[in-house]
Amino acid sequence: MKQTLAAILATAVSVSCQDDRKNVLFIAVDDLRPELNHLGHEFMHTPNIDKLAAGGMSFQRAYVQYSFCAPSRNSFMTGRRPDTTKAWSFMNHFRQVGPDWVSMPQYFKENGYYTVGTGKLFHRGLPPSFDAPKSWDEFTHSGGCSGNTNGFPVLEPNVTNVKCPPATNGCHNVGELGSKASWCAVNTSTLTYPLADTVSVDSAKEYLQAAKKSGKPFFVGVGFHKPHLPWIYPIEFNTTYPDASELPGPKINTVPENMPLCSWHEAGFNNTWEHPTSGPLAQVYRRAYYSAVTFTDYNVGQVLGELDNLGLTENTVVAFIGDHGWQLGEMNLWKKMTNFELGVRVPLIIRAPWLEKSVGVKTTAFAEAVDLYQTLADLAGLPPPQDKLQGNSLAPILREGITTGTGIKNYTFSQFAKNFTEAPEVGKDELWGVCEGCNHPDIDVMGYSVRSDNWRYTEWITWNKTSFTPIWEQLHATELYDHTGDFGASFDASTPTHNVASDPSHSTLIVQLRSVLRAHFNGDQ
Is this structure's pTM higher than 0.90? Predict the structure, then answer.
């Protein structure tokens, strides 16, 4: 049966439109704070990330919605905020409340993309099976897939599109140098199994090769585990930085004046509320963290190099992000798990080579991790997702080359849950846990935070243990910190010294920011 001219033209137009779709390489890095060379931290050795930034746009004020691995990833991998996913700890995942939601990789898969992933993208077990049945054509987890995460199976028995090659991810019995508990430099030639991130690099290269052969546009996700604890890296990276004594320590290692105790947490870095980590030990920890960052930079370079070798760079959107920030002794805090600038601000680079105004540009425009889903769909040339997503597409910022101001939004929003624990041993009557293992009724307060152009305002609100919502009338504590001129080049500027929420001169500002914060979180926009 002969096709009509109209049908032939329609088919040709359809094929042409599909050919115009861009590929996506999405790279997420665990625990990576925006302390990178291209962002003004010149002692950092991050040449491959810097090269990526030179070809794309770097967002100097990008923020996650929750500074913990599982909640953050449940948020940006679904384009929904934590109060919507109901994932505030490591005890829940988004599929419990959104079994029919379309995740970010799933959206590309359903639009005909070859969709594969490797490494840490969704948190292990949250959701089960890395959401492979719905989100991926195939997924590779670097390490074993046995066991469960708080009752959720890492890999369900009926799932067949997940590969689990063995890998090394801990320091026990493998470290050549280091404290074993927190860091180690290893001779990789002596390992029974390669390091987990090395496995991810190898599988990422294989997936890129398969993607090119598929003839389809692709979405390839790559998640690197380091610099997550323990800081394990090949011993050849142990000479990248000078002796620890020559590296800068935290300039401000004490808590901000008038900071509420619910904003602080113990982290096991030889510190207590009243006694910060000693200077020399803090420098040792920092050196290990930086070495792990440089190892990840090397791995990023390996993946981007393969993209170049395959001739795919010019037609591929690359998005690079950390899953949350990290404190390295500033404010007597370590790890993530805060609403502070250093806990929620992350590196974000988006490279779309065909958008000339975005090439080699730094922008102060606000960005949120929850924006990634819509941004990548937009830049890839796909229709706007019909799911009820939150956040916004950042594509207009790249297309217009916007470098100053706050961009398409005036505020960013983050949150963190805490549970009360008595802990007089730290010199206070109370200590607030970070709710890593909190079920919904275990939360005592939720810290809701808004970042404006110059200020960060946070309210700690009593939690309703039945409806799992904030009781706005029961305000536990407030915080207000001045971030005027803080665009990330100085971590000292990002480290507040005074909570000025009680200063009467800021009462009008607090009324304004409280209104913005509560309007947002009441509507969960």
Answer: yes
